[in-house]
Structures are given as C-alpha cells and as structure tokens.
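Hi all, long-time lurker, first post. I run a small reading group and we've been trying to get comfortable going from sequence to structure in the token notation. Rather than ask abstract questions, I figured I'd post a concrete chain and ask someone more experienced to write out its structure so we can walk through it together at our next meeting. Sequence below, copied exactly:
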Amino acid sequence: MSYLANIFVKFNLIMRNLRIPAKLICFWLMSYTLTVLNAKAQTTISLSANDKGRVFEGIGAVSAGASTRNLVDYPEKQRSEVLDFLFKPKFGIGFQHLKVEIGSGENSTCGSEPSHVITPEELKDPVPRGYELWLMAEARKRNRNIILDCLPWAYPRWVGTRFSQSSADWIVSFLELARKKYGLELNWISAGQNEMGTDLGWIGNNLRPTLDAHGFSKVKLQAPDDDSEFWQVFDKLEKEPKMDKLIDAVGYHYIDGREPWEIDQKTGHRATDKAKESGKPLWASEEWSQSGEEWGGKGALYLARLMNKLYTLDRITKFEIWCPVDGIYNQVIWANTGALQADAPWSGHYKIWPSVWTLAHTTQFAEPGWQYMDGACGQLDANTWKGSHVALRDPKTGDWSVIIVTGDKKKIKLAVGDGLKTGLVHLWKSTEKEQFVEQKALKVTKSGLLLDLEANAVYTISTTTGQTKGTFGEPPAAKPFPFPYTEDFESYKLNETPRFFSDQKGTFETISWPQGGMCLVQAVPDEGILWYDNWLLKPHSLVGDPNWQDYAIESDVFLKGGDVEIGGRYAHRDKLGFRWILSRDGRWQLNWQYTTLASGQIQNFLPADWHHIRLEMQGSQISGFIDGKKLTTVSTEAGTKGMAFIASTYDRNFFDNIKVEPLVNK
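-- Answer (accepted) --
Happy to help. Here is the structure in token form:
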C-alpha cells in the first residue's frame, strides 16, 4: 500500500500545481495503477500430457499473384540463400506448408502467372512454364516433409466455366506435370477458386473422380478457400454427408479481418461452434498480407500475436501467409509484402526481415503432428490479445514448446506435469532491437519455472534443440536496375519468361522464329476467366526502374493480329503510361494512358514484315518512330517517370531486340 500511496501523493501535487481536473487525474491514476499491477501479476501456464488439444498442421505460405516473380531471376548463390531462409528446417523460417497458384495467364494480384496449358491442345503434354513448380521442387529439396498444395486464381478461357470437367482436367494436369517434370507428389488441392468459393457438386462429380482416375487418390481436398460466407460450408456439408467425406479440411482467408489490422479488432470472422465440433481441420488458408520489414504496427510482432490468437480463439491448426517473399517490383501493387524481400535480382541484394524470426519462434520448435495443449493456450491479460501463449507437445517423445507474445511486461510461472520432459529447457527471445537470440538455458524444477518477460517481445521455451539463426553474411549491396537495358532473347529455351520481365496480364514467352533465332511472343489467345472482373487494359509486361525519367524504348515487332505497343513512364496498373501503338493495318497512335495525343496511318504498310518501333520520352517532349521515321512529337506535362513496358492484344504478336536507353538532355 505504501507504493500506491506514494503515487497518490505525487498525483495530488500535480493536481494542485497544474490545476488539472480531478476526474482526469483519477483516470490517469487508475490506468497507471492497472498497468503496474498487471506487470506485477503472475500468470501460470500449466502443461499436461493429458491435455487433448488439436493436432498442429504447420505454418505455411502462399506463393501466388506473381509475388515470387523476381526471386527466380537471382544469381544462383543468392537465390539458394533466400530459399534456405524460406524452407530449410531450423535455419530460417522453415515453412512447413507451401501452396502455389496454378497459373492462368491472367492477373491474380501483382501480375499474371503463365498456365501450364494455354490451349486445349497442350492438355496432352503440359508445358512447365513459370516458377511455381520449380519453387515447390526447391522447397522439397530442403525439406522432404514439406506439405505441397495448389489453387487456381483464374482460368484459361478454353475450360469454359470455372467448375467444369475441363477445369478439373486442367487442375489434374498440373499435378501430372509436377510428377512428370519435377518428381513431385502434391499433398493437397484447394478445391475452389481463390476467394470466389467452390461448388460441392463439381468436387464430387468432376474433380475427385478425375483425380482418382489419374492416380491421385491420395491427394486431399481443402475448401472453400474463400474470404466471405465464413464457415457456412458446414451448413451445406451437414446436409450432404457424401460431400462431407470428400472435404478433408476447411480453410478461409483473413479470419481475424483485414482492417484495421489491429490484434484486438472486433471485426473477426470467428469459427462457429459447428465448425469447431465438426472434427475437420480448420485452416487460415491465407492470412496477414503485410510487410515483415517492421517490428510493430502490422509487421512481425502482429504476425506472432495473430498466430497465437487464431489457435486459441478459433482452433486454427494451419496458418498460411501471403506471401512468402516480396519478389515484387516496387511500382507494382502490394510491393514490400511478405516475410522477406528479394525483389532486385540484377544486384543479388535481399533483406531478411524480422518476420522471418517471429515465424521461426513456432516453426523451429514444433512439427506438424505435434498436439496443442488447450489448457496452456490463452491470454496474458483477458482484455487484450497483445499478450498470449500457446503450448504444443510431441506425443511421441514428451518434448514440448511454449510460444509467448507479450504486450506489457509480465511475470509467468511455467508448471510442467507428468508425461512431459523436465530438466534443462531452452529459451529464445525476439524484440524490436534484436530477433531470435538464444538465452541462457534454464532448469524446470518440481516447483516450476519463473520468468520475467519484456514488453512487446516474442519468447519460445522448449525442450527441443538444434535451432539456429541462419546467416550467410551480408548479401551484395543494392544497385539500380541496369541502364541501358537490352534483350535479344537468344539465350533462352522455348516457353521461358525472360529475365526481369514481369507479366501483368497475358503471357509473354520465348519462342523460336521459323527463319532462325529466338524472340518473344504474347501466347494467350483469349482473355481468360478472370479472378475479378474489369482488371487491366490488355496483356502487358513491365521491366525496369520506377525512377526512370528521360529514356527511349524500342523493339522489333511482328503483328499477327490486333496491335502491339511499347511504352514508358508507367504510372497505373490499368491505364499504363505513355503508349506507342501500332496496329496490323498500319494505324499508329500515341497515348497518355487512355487519352490519344496523336494518331495516323502508314501508307502501303506491309503487315507481313517485321517493323521497328521506338518511343522517346525527354522532359515534356514525347516522340514516336516507326522504321526509323519520326511520325509525331507531342508536348505534355503528364507522366514524368516510371518503368518501361510492352503490350499486345490477345493475338500471337512477336517482339525482338528490345532496348531501353537513357536520353541525355541537349
């Protein structure tokens, strides 16, 4: 009482001297007193081998929406290092589950990922386009027990409808390609369209029979992978017991809500009693979608708090983040999202963000198949989810781990019951200042273990060993994108995406020209079945630096139909930037986004020939050239800087000898 009495005396002096209202002083006093008492209070966490919580299914990531695009172009050394941080057990994150997009050639967030079957003719021999199967192979190379999964965002037009026999064939052919080309056996399919629901009849009548008929009877199905109608699928499954048997897990996105990204928000989509009592695994099949660069705010500490909360409150046993790595150009939407950053392959520079280590506080201390101890999962303070704890045990060995995230400072007592290991335990700690630091080993006695915990920190206490804070030393320094930039495509094989090009809609891939040499073609013949409607102007691909200002882009082009364009000072994902457009009938047009600045017609244009087009942007002067002849110059104050791009209608149009070079002011 003397301690609190002293506080009252000090506040009384403040009230007299500063003339602050007594009610306000009392409010401050109560808040401060509660904070002090909470810090001094002790929370007891009791571990018991008889505690029957749910089975832990792992921490995973969703590589989709072209978020991993730039990683694949890194020099081999740095690329391997980043992959180790992502997937190597007890080194960095060590993701235990990887779900990838089945590409469609349509935009799925930060770009478009190419389809393994662009036309129905390819169904007999799917093409290993893109990088997702490569990523899964690299993940399994590092962790042979990693769980692999896939999900479509959009579909090629030829499948007809998203829930058809053709779409089932398209999905199963992805598994066949994984098996044939990479020796991969996938464990799961998310049986729906990303955030667009599913069709139980399609699963029962098309997808499951097609999987079984092609030798994939062991592949399990998760549904609906949606971000709406939370948990309503259980009402349908209750009425359709045959369908209920086909769904092995149920997953939803952003169960705790997207906005305002606060751990105590009231807008969550809590798992229903019916969901919890169903016996089915419940998954947070896409969560977070924020940057792990910062510690506070929406960053690494929030991520750790969210993982604890979703099991304790909703019994979520698998937690998957979007996205594993920020491999996104800075001028593209959702740049700087992910657990670590690898978006500059031309330099080899990457960044290991704090979220790597808050994830490691779980992944390095518990394996899928461990079991939660529900009685040891809860809040440190009943009024907030800033401080929480979960506990897991290995039912085979008696090993255990407790992951604690704090809000205020806290004292805890850890009591370990029969059937669990005691003796020496290991303590790891992360704060804003320093992450994943092993502390002095501690001994659990019969009376338990007492710990004083810092505020806003993450701790893991565990009987397990072998954890490391992996490192390769400093990566290469960051450098600007190479300028000038040239690409003649001669170093590529068939069906490859050229280095540094980031397709945003459609698919631009390398192809051999009948008269010799390699070039680039827009390969998608029709707009697909979109993830969301009205996305993006036309097939296009970005390259370069968002800070480029005065420069020229040029290319050789061959038109099979429609039109092609080259452009620069990219400013908007739908409207693009300055656009130099050439049609197959010889019409040309210079646009700023949707606004036409100049246009004309080339007389005696020969569509069966290659043509050379060039766009110069110097200050406010924008000039267009075709076959070496300047056709227009306009003066405009629109668009001062941005990346370069190429574009095409949904026609098989070709590009070659692309060059981007600086223009020096005269």
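A couple of things your group might point at:
Residues 2 and 8 are 10 Å apart (CA to CA).
The chain has eleven helices and 37 strands.
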